[in-house]
Amino acid sequence: MAGALQGIRIVDLTNIILGPYGTMLLADQGADVIKVEAPEGDAVRHIGKPARTPGMGPTYLYVNRNKRSLCLDLKQPAAREALLKVVAGADAFVHALRPQAIAGLDLGYETLRKIKPDLVYVGAYGYSADGPYGKLPAYDDAIQARFGIADLMGRAAGDDIPRYPPTIIADKTVGLTFAFAILSALMHRQRTGEGQFVEVPMFETMAAWLMVEHLWERTFSDEGQVGYSRLLSRTRKPYRTLDGWMAILPYIDKHWRNFFEIVGRPEVLQDPRYATLNARSLHIDDMYAMVEALAPTRTTAEWVKLLDAAQIPNAPVSRPADLFEDPHLVWRQLFKKYPHPTEGEITMVEPPVRMSRTPPAIRRPAPLQGADSRAVLAEAGLTEAEIAALKKSSALIEP
User: Fold this and answer.
1) CATH of the domain at 294
2) Do the beta carbons of residue 367 and residue 41 sit within 8 Å?
3) Which helix (H) or strand (E) covers residue 24, if one does?
4) Within 10 Å of residue 11's Cβ, how many Cβ atoms?
5) Beta-carbon neighbour count of residue 172 at 10 Å?
6) Of 292, 316, 340, which residue sits at a domain end?
7) Which residues touch 172 (CB under 8 Å, ≥6 apart)?
8) Among residues 316, 344, 362, which one ends one of the domains?
């Protein structure tokens, strides 16, 4: 079945994770995403060990599925002119280069809108281009350090040593925002016929993301506490049971009442410090310390049975490798095998969103570098002779 974005063409000048993850989400929904690569290829091609073919690393295969690859040396005028013809037939042009780098290629918004007035033009990079940090490079770890998550990780751990969470949280979160921004601008274009320039800065995006809960008392006063106390509690963590680890999360009044009935201590909620949600929020360390002390009295399976019956949120701690055997994910068929023309059978993660009319799907595997160069350029109106000339000058790369 066709995806919801069938008929939308996006010229994608992004690499690594942030941009490719965002455009993958749109490609899963049926958009025709044309991945534009330099002769050296997307760097993420070379991260991790490929099964068979150099440049076909595991992360590349994930975030570049459902796309076509156009490989051009944009430093050559003929290649740039060819790309402009491709852009002229597109709905959106997106990139993740620093503003100075995209200007150096003469592919800024003002240039491209001359050939495509209704173009949606979206740039994702570290910081707003006209701000004090506008010329700085940005990678996930640097953004994590700057927007506050590394500090919070250390504070919550109890040793105040900043650390990164073991995932590229900034790249993936901003990638989601990138996809949302592209779609929002395309929706405006559909309603009005107007294109526009869109900027998705990593630092500002992640600062806004963090402050959803951590703005906290600063909401009301410049002297107010910044940081949601429950999340900074050093006793908020998975708890050791008799035979493992699990999350035990009473939250609302009903949860806490049921929890203390299970453990035979209903009198706890008679204490004014713990009797209401607001009071508990001010003494959350005490609450979690009680849970931590009680958790080792039962096995994980015993806790799960009791807590599920009482409708108290809980979950055993899983390792990432355990997800392949998780009964819910097995039922959902989240992990499926797909044939790849060069890498053989590979495991892919299905799109998690389900849609009754236009389901997202993995329709084609991640391409070899330049695999679709000739076809994309022919669709843009280049003749066989023009394509051959680009190939001869090394401005066009094919497998």
Assistant:
1) 3.30.1540.10
2) no
3) helix 18-28
4) 28
5) 16
6) 316
7) 17, 18, 21
8) 316
214 located within any domain: no
Other beta carbons within 10 angstroms of residue 125's beta carbon come to 26
What are the tokens at 172? 């993936």
Asked if residue 227 belongs to a domain, the reply is: no
330 vs 346: CA distance, rounded Å? 17
Q: Which residues, including other chains, have CB under 8 Å from residue 278's CB and lie 6 or more apart?
A: none
Asked whether residue 125 falls in the same domain as residue 20, the answer is: yes
Which residues have a Cβ under 8 Å from the Cβ of 20 and sit 6 or more positions away?
12, 14, 35, 42, 44, 63, 64, 175
Phi then psi for residue 50, to 5 deg, are: -70, 155
Give the whole-angstrom CA distance, residue 143 versus residue 220: 27
pLDDT (0 to 100) of residue 284: 94
- Judge if pTM exceeds 0.90: yes
Number of domains in the chain: 2
Please state, in angstroms and rounded to a whole number, the distance separating the CA atoms of residues 143 and 174: 11
- Same domain (yes/no): 73, 111: yes
- What are the tens digits of pLDDT across the range 10-63? 999 999 999 999 999 999 999 999 999 999 999 999 999 888 999 999 999 999
We report the CATH number of the domain holding residue 137 as: 3.40.50.10540
